[in-house]
## 1
Amino acid sequence: MYRIAVLISGTGSNLKSLIEDSKAAGLYEIAIVIADRNAKGINHASENSIPFLVLDRKDPLLSDKVLDAVKGTDLVVLAGFLSILKGQILKEYKDRIINIHPSLLPQFGGEGMYGLKVHEAVLKSGKLISGCTVHYVNEDVDAGRLILQSIVSTEGATTPEELQARVLGKEHETLTTAVRMLAMEGSARGMR
Ligand code: GAR
């Protein structure tokens, strides 16, 4: 079975949807959940008997510790993970780390652009659409090759929280679809 590691920093609603989807689809399994702080989302891992590891986002060896913990998995999924991975993991897991970002990249991305800040900036810009992006992770923040995007209308959204909720619903669908696609592709490659 295709095995993924899921990295989180917050409430873990994307993790929850991946857990549900992994059970429904039977295409991949979540081998480990890693948090870079005491994230609320860890509860989803413990409630579903998924091994988890809590690291310290201020630890200079964070990326190396993540690499040690994900070894043996096929894909690393950043699902609301707010630390920036650096060094060896980006080499060893080249094209095997993906991230979900709550905007239509390349717009409203880059270091410091995360969570509500993204939705604030989108509303301020007056754009009629927003959305989310699943992309590969490389050395440049939010700039790796795109995998999948979904759009939502910003119409009628008056607060960043409102837009965030709208985009988050799409994120769950988009991230699980992207992981299914990569799992099918990875499993097919393994069979050849
Ligand atoms: C999601 O909106 C995700 O796109 C965002 O954090 C939220 C996590 O929600 N990630 C970033 O902003 C990364 N740049 P969740 O913990 O409920 O899945």
## 2
Amino acid sequence: EKGGYDHYMLKEIHEQPGALRQTLSGRVDEVAGDVDLDVDLSSEVLADVEEIQLVACGTSYHAGLYARRLLEEFADVRVTVEVASEYEFTGGRDPWETLVVAVTQSGETADTLSAMRKAAKAGARTLAVTNTVGSTAAREADDALYIRAGPEIGVAATKTFAAQVTALSLLTVHIGRRRGALSSERASNLLENLRGLPGAVQQLLDASERLEAVASEYVDEDAYFFVGRKLGAAVALEGALKLKEIAYVHAEGFPSGELKHGTLALVTEDTPVLTVLTEGARPKETLNNVKEVESRGAPVIGFSSYDAAANYLDVEIPIPDLGALEPLVANVGLQLFAYHVANELGRAIDKPRNLAKSVTVE
Ligand code: M6R
């Protein structure tokens, strides 16, 4: 049942290329630079949208943070992302001008459903981005976009995060094109990168043994910091959550520029820093941050498409060129790192203590 893997989590990490092909299947027209999503968001509807509000919890919230950058860059629309349990509807003058997107793998998370209901009650249009056909979120929202990742058994969300970001990338193209904000050339470029995504993820999966060795070298440290910029910052948060959740060690993720505003005081040779260094996200500045932690003796593990970084990294895991999707590819490396650390520590990886797959209380 685990397909020869020791845990569902590892199986699901390895299922990512196939899951992503499913997310994309039949939805992409690369030549026209457009997508075909089975949603009711027409050009007329989208022309009226002044703001998109993404609401979600945990890993799905991190997918929302990633999507916010994509929507801002490629669809030229104002976007907010909020943890669902903190959400209050603050629409403009006309609630219908706000599109509220609930990102939820299960479609049953109580906090997310409650946020969505607040928005619907106020008169906003709602869209559920979910893995689960027939889930409460899918039924209650005005529209649903399925991420098609297949069932995920491990409590830790892995392939569903990748599929969420992929589906939200398609949604970005859909919205950008229909709002006249995205040229077919730029859209084709993003879609070409999406086509390359399963193969790029496979390259990281092929580095699994290497990451296992890295994990055993850096297991049992005081704390772990995860940093990156822009899209890389979303992934840094996700990498830290994964490690906390399944390895029960302290980890913190944040935008790399924030290091020098406080956390640097905690950095020692016993606090590995995992960094996402991709071409699209001011890698020079991130490299400066890396130098600061390196000079304090912290081991630096870099997931990098930025060649100039190599000299400053204790471990370099190369990320193939893939534009805005590079951090998503790097995240697969972070998943494997978390998995191997947790495995080394003998944790109950598929069912971490105190946690449930679907959180149905507020
Ligand atoms: O089903 P949802 O996407 O709404 O779940 C949200 C979170 O509970 C979930 O992502 C949680 O953070 C994961 N266990 C993280 O791996």
## 3
Amino acid sequence: MAKGIWIVVEQSKLEIRKVSLELLSQGRIIADKTGEPLVAVILGKGVAELAGEVIPYGADKVILVDNEKLADYTTGAYTSVLNQLIRKEEPQAVLLGNTAVGKDLAPRLAQRLGVGMASDCTGIEIDDASFLSFKRPIYGGKAFAEVVSEVRPVLATIRPNTFPLAQPDASRQAEVVTETAAIDPEDLRAIVKEIAIATSQRPELIEANIIISGGRGMKGPENYCILEACADVLGAAVGASRAAVDAGWIEQKFQVGQTGKTVSPTLYIACGISGAIQHLAGMGSSKVIVAINKDPEANIFNLADYSIVGDLFEIIPLLTEEFKKL
Ligand code: FAD
């Protein structure tokens, strides 16, 4: 009996993350191929209004758990509620975004359910028996592993920007079910008292379509303004190498790489970055890579789709002026 492909929809202050809509879009394709229903699961407070936002992306059914204690994400409460729902409904697969929340939640859930999981996946395959397997980069992106689970549900986190957004269909209808779940005091050992949101007009690094990153070649913090000017014209996020972060030129939250964020934008522009394996591990799956470096032997050029050999202080302002004309 079909039990469903579940997408755990991530929301914060009733705003759905783009990666969840990407997963629903891909989930629809998987559901059509496997004959499984596509189920969106939304936890939070006052989440009923979000059902209408996920149905157009392909959900056959929406499960809502609306509870004051789920207003803000906490590991204990969210793990407990999802564990109860999954045990009750027994879905075939549960997919989450590889975000801070997804990375926190999925392994704990896997442990509670006694199943394995695949993390930071960049591909999903479906075999003839409708079994899902997952592709994930290993060895800093040098190779790919195929992860196959023999137990159900299969659990996986998927890298943001891996799958394109579907064209939403506003006429789509779906069943909406409100479930209740027990939340014990034991599940609420951590309580969120306040969330301080950093204000920025730029997109968040892991979900950005375009990223322009600066490395040690930027020479100092005062020069990041040329990257920012370019980012603002492109509607891009700004990133950095660890060398720039370690030098104190830019905050750690902007670091891309093995010990920073993993990104997969449509366009990644690397400026004054040599292309160390640890940096490539975080951005190697970008769709198009442009590198600007004055060293023609820089390793980043081995991965780049477009290589610009030259001084970034001349090239970035020129590019910014050209982008303004688009
Ligand atoms: P460099 O390697 O010094 O390169 C600077 C580049 O700028 C050079 O190629 C140079 O030719 C070019 N340049 C200089 N001036 C100009 C100019 N005017 N115009 C154009 N080009 C110019 N690194 C990360 O980035 N992310 C990580 O998450 C990360 N994690 C790590 C984890 C571990 C365990 C370890 C050991 C290292 C990690 N590193 C990480 C560090 C990594 O090994 C490199 O040291 C780092 O990526 C180098 O940063 P960079 O390319 O900015 O600097």
## 4
Amino acid sequence: MKEIRFENVWKSYGKTEVVKGLNFTIKEGERLILLGPSGCGKSTTLRMIAGLEEITSGELYMNDRVVNDVPSGKRDVAMVFQNYALYPHMNVVDNITYGLRVQKVPRSETRNRLDAALKMLKLEGYENRLPKDLSGGQRQRVALARAVVKKSNYFLLDEPLSNLDAQLRVSARKELVKIHELYRQTIVYVTHDQIEAMTVGERIALMNEGKLQMLDTPENVYHRP
Ligand code: ADP
Ligand code: ADP
């Protein structure tokens, strides 16, 4: 199962505990939102799944296997960052396909995945542009395309829409849900925005001060009597 399971996971920076005993399961193929106020440990939790932060104690399982010591490059994850983290000197095509070149995916397969991603994310015609010559919405779509072409089973997003204006955010949410309905990866999506959580999430994990407070559907999180 391409699920993610936290068993008593703690994370400290020095003496400061920022994640305090997480116990929960993210189901295979679901869109799970990590929601909570700034500083509550959402990014740290996501980065532990990505393999970008070490786990201080406890066990993190992915696909029924403890991955605490598995490096990021071997975790079958694709990540989209808040600032997109595009390579400024690479054009759109090179940004999108960079990871596939590193993985030595054959050229024809790379071409197919690239063409599909350019089409789906409406980036045709922008292939040779550098990031600085794209709008915010286009940069965000390049970052999504770069993650999509990896065809990873785990799709991790850290406030991916927070740099967009309100109108673009609405269309980007729809794009994301559409991508997920095609591929059904396991999605973990960090946000502090309640509206975003309710429109993108199938379930919401509510965090506060390093702990999980509630894990339920948007309806049950927000419409409890
Ligand atoms: P969120 O994503 O919910 O805003 P983070 O996971 O980014 O929260 O951060 C949780 C806490 O951990 C914050 O108090 C933050 O200041 C602290 N923190 C994050 N990264 C580091 C680090 N590298 N060193 C020390 N403290 C950190
Ligand atoms: P969006 O509505 O997607 O945010 P903008 O209104 O920012 O787009 O830009 C409108 C058009 O101008 C887009 O097609 C974009 O490709 C183009 N564009 C934006 N910034 C630049 C730039 N620095 N150089 C060339 N073209 C640009």
